[in-house]
Q: What sequence folds into this?
C-alpha cells in the first residue's frame, strides 16, 4: 500500500509540468509572441530642409534663353549700340602732343571706351540698372574726325515677365524703327536718346502685358549728318549730329498659338502708336 502511494506521488510530480503547459501554454506563447513582434523604438525623424525655389533654375540648360532673361547679369544678348564723332584734338589730354599719323587709329581705338562710357548714363536713367562698355572701336571719317562705335551691355531694370510659365515656348525676336516727329531726325542729345529708350521700353511693356514676357534686347543709335553734296559738308556748327533708333524686342511665346510673323506685326503696330 505504501509503495502504491509513493508511485502515485511520483506520477503526479511528473505530470504537473505537462498540466501547467496545457493550461497556461497559450498565455506563455502570447507573451513570447508579443515580445518578438514588439516594434523596435525608432530614432526621431529629422525633417529635411526644403531647398528654396530658384526662379532662374529653368534657364540653366538653355543658354539662349538665359542670355535674354537672366535678371542680374550682363550678357551678350542685351546691349545698346552707339556711335559718336570726335575730332582728334578732343581725344588728347591737356598738353598732350598729337600722335604720329601712323599711330592715330590705334590711339583713337584705345580711347574709344572712354568716349562711349558716358552714354551709359542714358541707359541707367531708363532701361538698365548696370551698364558697361563691352566693345569699342574707331575709324577715321572722310573729314578727318574719328567715328567711335561700340556696344554697351546692360542689366534690365524693367519687369521681364514670367517666361517660365509659357508652354511650347520659342524665342521670338523682331526689330522696329522707333518713330520720330518732323522731317529731320532728332539731334544726338541725351534728352533724345533717353526719350527713345523709354519709347522702346514702353513697347516692351505692352508686349509683356499681352504675351507674358518681353525684353528690350537691343537698341541701335545710328548717327547721321547732312552734307550739301557727298564731298561738301555744311558749314561748321550748322549741322548737328542726328540719330535714328532701331529697337529689338525678344519674347518667349507659345509657338502653337503665335509665330514670328504675327509677332513682328504686333511690334510694328505698337511702334506706330508710340
A:
Amino acid at each position: 500500500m505504501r509503495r502504491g502511494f509513493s508511485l502515485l506521488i511520483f506520477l503526479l510530480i511528473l505530470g504537473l509540468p505537462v498540466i501547467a503547459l496545457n493550461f497556461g501554454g497559450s498565455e506563455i506563447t502570447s507573451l513570447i509572441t508579443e515580445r518578438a513582434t514588439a516594434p523596435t523604438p525608432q530614432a526621431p525623424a529629422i525633417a529635411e530642409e526644403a531647398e528654396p525655389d530658384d526662379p532662374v533654375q529653368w534657364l540653366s540648360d538653355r543658354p539662349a534663353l538665359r542670355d535674354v532673361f537672366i535678371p542680374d547679369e550682363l550678357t551678350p544678348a542685351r546691349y545698346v549700340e552707339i556711335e559718336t564723332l570726335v575730332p582728334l584734338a578732343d581725344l588728347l589730354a591737356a598738353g598732350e602732343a598729337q600722335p604720329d599719323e601712323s599711330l592715330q587709329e590705334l590711339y583713337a581705338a584705345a580711347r574709344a571706351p572712354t568716349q562711349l562710357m558716358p552714354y551709359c548714363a542714358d541707359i541707367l536713367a531708363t532701361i538698365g540698372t548696370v551698364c558697361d562698355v563691352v566693345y569699342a572701336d574707331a575709324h577715321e571719317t572722310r573729314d578727318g574726325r574719328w567715328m567711335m562705335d561700340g556696344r554697351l551691355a546692360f542689366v534690365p531694370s524693367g519687369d521681364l515677365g514670367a517666361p517660365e510659365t509659357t508652354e511650347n515656348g520659342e524665342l521670338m525676336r523682331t526689330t522696329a524703327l522707333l518713330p520720330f516727329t518732323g522731317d529731320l531726325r532728332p539731334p544726338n542729345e541725351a534728352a533724345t536718346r533717353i526719350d527713345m529708350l523709354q519709347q522702346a521700353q514702353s513697347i516692351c511693356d505692352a508686349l509683356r502685358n499681352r504675351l507674358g514676357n518681353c525684353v528690350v534686347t537691343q537698341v541701335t543709335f545710328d548717327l547721321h549728318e547732312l552734307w550739301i553734296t557727298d564731298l561738301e559738308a555744311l558749314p561748321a556748327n550748322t549741322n548737328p549730329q542726328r540719330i535714328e533708333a532701331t529697337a529689338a524686342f525678344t519674347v518667349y511665346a507659345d509657338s502653337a498659338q503665335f509665330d514670328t510673323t504675327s509677332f513682328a506685326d504686333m511690334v510694328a503696330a505698337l511702334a506706330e502708336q508710340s
Q: What stands out?
A: The mean pLDDT is 83. Residues 57-273 form one domain.
